[in-house]
Amino acid sequence: MARRKTATKGLINELAVQLKLAKDPNIIVFTPLGGLGPIDIVTLNMQTNEYTAYDVKTKNYRGKDYTPKDGYKRNSKGSLINRQTTAEQKKLKVKIIYP
Fold first, then answer.
1. Are 51 and 41 in contact (CB under 8 A)?
2. pTM confidence score
3. Which tens digit of pLDDT belongs to each residue from 53-98?
4. Strands (E), the chain
5. Which of 16, 23, 27, 94 could form a disulfide with 99 if both were Cys (CB 3.0 to 4.6 A apart)?
6. 54 contacts 39 by C-beta, under 8 angstroms
7. In whole angstroms, what is the distance from residue 61 CA to residue 80 CA?
8. Helix (H, G, I), strand (E, B) or coil at 64
């Protein structure tokens, strides 16, 4: 059940980003057929003929503070967890986008 809930949230966020990008009349939005792979959305700007690849991430926040071995407590509760691109995404110049 938990996996289905997070997958649904991810799908909703992908659709929200697609809608946001599609509001620009100069941009055409493409999505992968199977929904698998390092890229979630590809856009084509009709004026500049520029392709941009995006990976949509859902915003997640830290639930508790972190205390490492050195004992210095980092007050990070409630802060956004930043996601990084994978090596394959870096090679493809994929941008991470949050809804």
1. no
2. 0.79
3. 999 998 888 777 777 777 777 677 777 788 889 999 999 999 999 9
4. 27-30, 41-45, 50-56, 94-97
5. 16
6. yes
7. 5
8. coil
